[in-house]
Amino acid sequence: MRSMNWIYWGVIATFAMMLFEGVMQGLGLTRMSIPFMVGTLYTPNRSRAKLIGAFQHVGHGLLFTLVFVIAFHLLHRQTWWLGGLIGLFQGMFVLVVGMSLLPEFHPRMASERSGPTAMRQLEPPGFMALNYGPATPISIIVSHVIFGIVIGSFCNA
Amino acid sequence: MTAIASLVETMPGERRQTTAIGDYAAIGDGRSVALISNEGSLDWLCWPRFDSAAIFCGLLDVERGGRWSIRRRDLISKSRRYVGRTNVLETRFRTSRGEMRLTDFMPIVEPAYETSHLLPGQQIVRILSCDAGEVEIDVEYAPRPGFAKRPPRIVDRGALGLRVENGGAMLTLHGDLSPRISQHVAYAKATLSAGDQTSMILTYSCESPEVLPLLADAPAALDRTLRWWENWSSQCTYRGQYADAVSRSTLALKLLEFPTSGAFVAAATTSLPERIGGELNWDYRYCWLRDASVIMEALCGTGYEVEAHTHSRLLCWVALDALVRLEERQLLHGYGVEQFRGVRDEIRLAIETESWIESERTYTNEPGKTALDAALMHLSLLNFEPASSDRMRGTYQRICRDLGAGGPLLYRNLSTGEPTEGAFGICGFWAVEFLAMGGGTLEEAQHAFEQMLAYANDVGLYAEEIDPNSGAALGNFPQAFTHVGLINAALAIERRAREDKAGRRKEI
Which of A64, B216, B249, B271 has the fewest CB atoms within 10 Å around its CB? Predict the structure, then answer.
C-alpha cells in the first residue's frame, strides 16, 4: 500500500494545482488554460483537447511527484516547506525556461516574431507567459508551490 | 498591392456626426450582434454575449463611445445590402478615383468543421476589396470596453496584433496595415488599387493560448459563413409574394437568438431612445417572459382582480382553450378539463360583457373604461372572435381613429392622451394581420403591408418604433417583435390569398 501512496497523493496534489489554476482563470486573473495548451499538442478539437490535456496534466503531476519523492530521499528530509520550495523552483523553471521553449516544440503554436501560419495558430506565451494575462506568472508559481506543499506534507513513499 | 502610406487621424476639433438608428445594419453569430453604419463604422458591439458591457458604443455616445471605422476619401456615393439570404453585410463606396467593397461578418461554421479545425473564439471579419481605380482609406480603431468607463491601453504586438486587456479577456485586432497609436486610438491609412484586397479581423478570447486568426483565410471564412446562412435560410418554407421581407425578418430574428438557451433577446441594443430627449431608454438585450397567465395569477393572488386588463384575460382564455382542445383530441387525461372549460367560458363572458362598450361599439383595454390599446386586435389574432365580426370591425375602426399615427402606423395606446413615444412597428403589422384575417379585404391587407415595408431601412431592418413625422427608426435595434409582426402578417396574407382563391374556385 505504501508504495502506491505517491500515486494518489500525486493525483490529489495535481488536482489542487488545477483547482487553483481554474479559480485564477475563472476570476479573470489569467487566461491561461494548461489543459487546452497541452491538449492541442494532439488535436485541434477544442473540447477534446481540454480533456486530453487534463489527463496529461495529471500524468505530468504523477511524474513530478516521483521527482519530488526522489529529491526528499536524496535530501533525507521531507517537510511542507521543502516541498513548497521545490515547487517554487519548479514553477520558476516552467515560467522562465519552459514557456520560452514552448513555441519550439508545440506543433500548433505560433512564434512571437512571425505570427500565425496555417499550421501554427496558437498564441505564444511570451516572456514569463505574460501574453496570457498579467497575473499569469503568479498563477504558475503559486500553483506549483501548492503542488509541492501537498506532496511535502502528505506523500509518504 | 496594398500601399501603406502615412498615418492619419481625426482632425482636431472635428465634430462627429450622430448616425440615425435606421442607418445601421446588424451582423452576428448567435452570441452577439454588431451594428455597422452605412458609412462603414462599427459603432455597437457587446462581447462575449448580448448582455455584456459594450466594447464599442459610439451608437450611444458619438464622442466617447468608441468605434471601428473605415472611411474613404472623396466619397461620391454609397450603397449596401445583405449578400443574398445571409447576415453578411456588403457596403459599396464610390469615390472620385475608384470603387471599393467592404464585407462585414461574424464567422460561423458547421459543427463538423469546428471539431477538426482550431478556430478563434469570437471574431468580426472586415474584408476591403478595391473593384476599380484607386481608393484611399482611413481606419480608426477606438475600442472602449466597459461602456467606455475608461480609455483602454492599446498595445501593438506586431505579428500578434493590436491588443487590449479587458478584464479577464483579450481583444485583438489583426490586420496588415501599419497602425499608429495615439491617445487610446489606433489609426492607419492605406491606398487600395483595383484588384487589391485586405482584411482586418477582431477577436475576443477569455482563454489562452488564444487561437490567432489567419488574414489569408478571411475569404474562405466568408464562403463558409455564406454557406451556413444560406443553408439556414433554405429551411424557410414561406414562398409567398413577400418572401424577401419575411426572409430578412427571420434572419434578423436568428441574429437575436441566444443558442445556449434558445431564447430570443428583445433587441441587440440598450438605451436607444423611443422618444428623442425622453426617458424611454430601456435595456432590451434580455428575454422578456411576457407570460400573461403568470401575471394574471399574481394579480389575482394579491387581490387585484379589478386591475386585470382585457388582454391579460384574453391570454388566460387562450391558455385554457388550448387545454380544452387538447382534451377534445384525447391528448389530455385526468386534469379536470371540465373545470378548465368552465373557467374559460367565464372569462369569455367577462370579456364580452365587461370589456365591451355598446354605446361606442368597441372593446376596451380595461373593463368599465374607455381607453383603447392596439393589443385589442389580438382578440381576433388569437382566435377569440372572428376579425369579420361586427364587434371586431367596430373595435378596429376605433383603434384606427384613436391610435392612428398616419398611414398604416399605430400608437400602442394613448394612456396620457398625447403620444409620448413613436408608433409601434408591431402594431402596424397587427393591423395588417387583422385585415388579412377577415377584418378587411386581401387588397387592403396587402396595401397596408406594403406601406409598412416602406418603413424598413435600406437593408430591411426595423427598430421597435417609427417616428410618424419623419419615418425615422426609434428605440432599440434591430427589434425582434417588429420582425415577428412582419412574418405573422405575411403568413396571414398568404393564407388569405389561398382561401380567397379556393373560395373563387368553389363559386365557379
Answer: B216
Compute the Cα dihedral for B424, B426, B429, B430 and give only its sign.
Answer: negative
- B271-308: per-residue pLDDT in tens? 887 777 777 778 888 776 553 333 334 334 333 344 45
Q: What was the pLDDT predicted at B275? A: 75
pLDDT of B437 higher than 90 = yes
Cα separation, B481 vs A46, in Å, equals 36
Count of CB atoms situated within 10 Å of the CB of A34: 21
Q: Which of A35, A27, A46 is nearest to A138 (CA)?
A: A27
Query: Is B114 in Cβ contact with A31 (below 8 Å)?
Result: no
Suggest the residue from A37, A121, A132 to mutate for an interface test with chain B (most B CBs closer than 10 A).
A121
- The continuous run of DSSP H or E covering B251 comes out as helix B243-255
Q: Are A127 and A30 in contact (CB under 8 A)?
A: no
Phi, psi of B28 (to 5 degrees): -170, 175
Q: How far apart are CA B166 and CA A17, in angstroms?
A: 25
Give the residue from B358, B378, B263 showing the smallest Cα distance to B316.
B378
Asked whether B47 and B106 are in contact (CB, 8 A), the reply is no
- H or E stretch at B337: helix B337-354
Q: Give the confidence band of B258 by pLDDT, cuts at 50, 70, 90.
A: confident
Determine which helix (DSSP H) or strand (DSSP E) holds B240, and give its type and residue range: none
**Residues facing residue B163 across a β-bridge:** B155, B172
Contact present, A84 and A148 (Cβ < 8 Å): yes
- Residue B133 makes CB contacts below 8 A (sequence gap 6+) with B95, B97, B98, B99, B193, B194
ipTM for the whole complex: 0.91
Could you write out the DSSP letters of every residue in B260-328?
TTTEE-SBS-BS--SSTTSS---B--S-----HHHHHHHHHHTT-GGG--HHHHHHHHHHHHHHHHHHH
Instruction: Look at B207 and A33 and tell me if their CB atoms are within 8 Å.
Output: yes
For residue B2, the model assigns a pLDDT of 37
Burial (Cβ within 10 Å: 0-12, 13-18, ≥19) of residue B300: middle
Contacts of B114 in chain A (CB under 8 A): 46
| Beta-bridge mates of residue B137 | B72, B190
CB contact under 8 A, B208 and A30: yes
Q: For the purposes of burial, counting CB atoms within 10 Å of the CB of B347, is it exposed (0-12), middle (13-18) or buried (19 or more)? A: buried
Nearest to B118 among A44, A112, A134 (CB): A44
Cα separation, A153 vs B256, whole angstroms:
53
CA B383 to centroid of chain Cα atoms:
27
